[in-house]
Amino acid sequence: MTAPRSFEELVAEADAAPTEGWDFSWFDGRATEARPSWGYQRSMGERMAKATAALDVQTGGGEVLAGVPRRPPLCVATEAWPPNVVKATALLHPLGTVVVAAPEEPPFPFADNAFDLVVSRHPVKPYFDEVARVLRPGGTYFAQHVGPASAFEVVEYFLGPQHRQGRDPDTERAQAQEAGLEIVDLHTERLRMEFYDIGAVVHFLRKVIWMVPDFTVAKYLHRLKELHEQITAEGPFVAHSSRTLFEARKPG
Q1: 20 to 30 Å CA-CA from 165: which of 89, 112, 157, 199?
Q2: Does the pLDDT of residue 205 top 90, yes or no?
Q3: Residue ranges of domains in the chain
Q4: 8: Cβ–Cβ under 8 A, 6 or more apart, which residues?
């Protein structure tokens, strides 16, 4: 029987693992997260198959878009973080998708009415005025947003009690409507997360940097050791992510 790995081994491995892109296969066997009932990649792929020109905003490493069976004749993705731009370019260019290095903040580097579909998975912030501008009349915005108080059990373990609202779907609804978009579908689900070892927690916080913005292993070493002991004694550390399905249409 293999001996349990030490705290030092688990943390050193996680602290050295690459974090670019949105490939979460590193967590296999070490952490789990339930998926929303709507199946974002499948649902997005169904819309891609019917589109003629599509934009994927903040594509990350391009993994989600690359998994779509059929993309429209014109398909463009944007990404701001240089390591992700490199990864997305290598993955998406062979599939006929152009990757544009562009900041997350507006304006989008595209003409008015350029796309009939704009998609985004977990945008840092949705800029609905820009979405409305680049959508053609009758076009669709289809996205999966991070919902309110997502993974706050992890956040609060390290930072203490926080204001738990965070991303507010009702506020985003109002912003989209103010930009001239009509809401087609909007609902939120909370989803169980389990971390089976302390390395998974370290890698998660290094990869999803806005959860604990000042996170380093050295700074939070004491809390990490305490959490390692808790997981060893009691089993997985449980948290809950929050995801919002957001679909809107530009009148036309």
Answers
A1: 199
A2: yes
A3: 7-249
A4: none
The residues near 45 (Cβ < 8 Å, ≥ 6 apart) are: 67, 68, 69, 70
**Looking at the predicted structure, is the pLDDT value of residue 165 above 70?**
no
CA dist., res. 223 & res. 142, Å (int) = 39
The kind and range of the H/E element at 85 are: helix 82-92
Distances (CA, A) of 72 to 48, 99, 112: 6, 15, 19
CB atoms within 10 A of CB 193: 21
Distances (CA, A) of 27 to 30, 58, 173: 5, 22, 33
- CATH 3.40.50.150 fits domain 7-249: yes
pLDDT at 164: 66
State how beta strands 74-79 and 98-101 pair: parallel
Amino acid, single-letter form, for residue 229:
E
Q: Residue 50 — left, alpha, or beta (φ > 0 → left; ψ -120 to 50 → alpha)?
A: alpha
> What tokens does 95 get?
């599939």
Task: Count how many Cα atoms sit within 13 Å of the Cα of residue 83 in the half-sphere of its side chain.
Answer: 6
pLDDT for 162:
86
Q: How far apart are CA 217 and CA 181, in angstroms?
A: 43
